[in-house]
Every structure is written in C-alpha cells, then in structure tokens.
Amino acid sequence: MQISVASVKFGASSKSYYFGVGNLEVKPGDHVIVETSNGQEYGYVEKGNHEIKASELTGELKPIIRIATDADKKKLAGKTEKEKAAMAEAGKRIAKLKLDMKLVGVSYSFDDSKILFNFTSSNRVDFRELVKELAGHFHARIELRQIGERDEVKACGGCFGMCGQQVCCSRWLPDFKAVSIKMAKNQNLSLNPTKISGVCGKLLCCLEYENAHYKELAGLMPKLNSTVKTPDGNGVVMYNNLLKKEVNVKITDKDGYTIKTFTLSEIKFDSKQNAGSEKEE
Question: DSSP labels for 263-280?
C-alpha cells in the first residue's frame, strides 16, 4: 500500500519526518504548519509530495494542516522572545526551589499548548513542584527533559569547533552516531583527549565521517611491526601513510639500519596479516 506524504524538518539540524499531505501540494522550501503529538508546529518542507510504502511508517501519520501564512510567519518571529521570557521565569523558580539543574533551552509548541524545558544535571532531580509552578504560571502543558552533554551543545548552538566552524550537531547533523577511540586509531590521530574531543567533552562526531574510508585503506596496508619484502630486501613496517598509500620500512644491514619509504605497490606481504584485519572496538 502506497501513502502520499511530504518530508518536513523543524530546523537545520532536525531529523526529517513524514506528514500526510491530504489534498495539499507542497514543494521543497515551503513553510508549513503540521500536527504533532506535541501540538501544532512550524516546519519546512525538505521533500514535497511523494509516495512511500505503509511499512516505512514507524508511528501514526500526522497531517500537514496548511501552508504557513503571513500571520504564521509573524507569530514564529515572536516565538523567540516568548521562549527567552519563559527561560528567565523558569530560572528564577529553579533558584527559589534550590534545584540542582541547569536550564539549557525552552521550546514553545507553535499553538502555545505545550512548553518544553531542557536541562542538564549530574543527579536525578525531583522537579514535580517546579512543573506545578510553571503550569500555573504559563497555563500550558509543561514538560521537563533531562539531556546529555552532546544534546546540550546541540541545543545551545553558537559553539565553534577546532575547525573554526559552528559545531555540526547544531548546524546540520540530525543524529548522534556511535564514535569510538578505534576511529581515531584508524586515522593515525593523536589520542590526546584535548585533540579528539569536541566542546561537549565527548569524542568528536567528525571522527565517524571518514572512518569507513580509512578502514578500507587500512585493509590494504601491512600491520605495524610485520615483515615485508621490499626492492631493498626484507624489513619491518614502522609506519603506514594511509592517504598516500606509502609504507615506512626499517631495513637492517651490517652497518645498522635505515628507514625507507615505499609505495604500497613496491612491497609484498601476507595479505592475511594487514592492518585492516583487526576487529572494531
């Protein structure tokens, strides 16, 4: 069974979600008002009308209500000021109740029916009294969500990485993928935590971007400390330059040893003992 949908995002780094189009015709870049489980939201069409299989849906298909009007766009422009005010009000009440939590961000649903407060804390927080006070003040449904370090940086935005650009998670990255120290090893990077950690204190998300390519290259190279045959005799592998496909080999002779660089095509070794044969940690 085929279902007519459009793909909608709620920000540059948001995931894309399917919404039913009904009789509407929408195209990429259109601003739309959609129905969600949290009330009405303002979104941006990433992919216009198209059909998908019913099996591709992971939950209830909510509808696109309408193309955003000028009034909707004006209301969206004022949403930021309301969220700043809500942030300040919640901060005062957190201080009054002496709660061990750091408020990170506030998000109003577009129809003002719900307000989401994101916070971080090193401990579990009993925020039931806070919810009562906020609900009484704002006359809306209140949700408090505890988030981690990566989500905090994503929510704050405006942070810049060592590359000089705004961090990927708040600029375009919709999902956090698993990142391991093995990825840094695959790329011959320094394992100094300050070199391979982002502003969130966790391993850099970008370590994952090219990892598959580095693993593929490593699968072509000999293991470190293994013996290879070179035009100048047998030697021991000291270093692999994956991108250049070059190998530094230590060749011992009667006068001591020398370290020479050979291209991958110039050496011979047992392919069963290459650098890519190690299991991913």
Answer: EGGG-B--GGGBGGGSPP
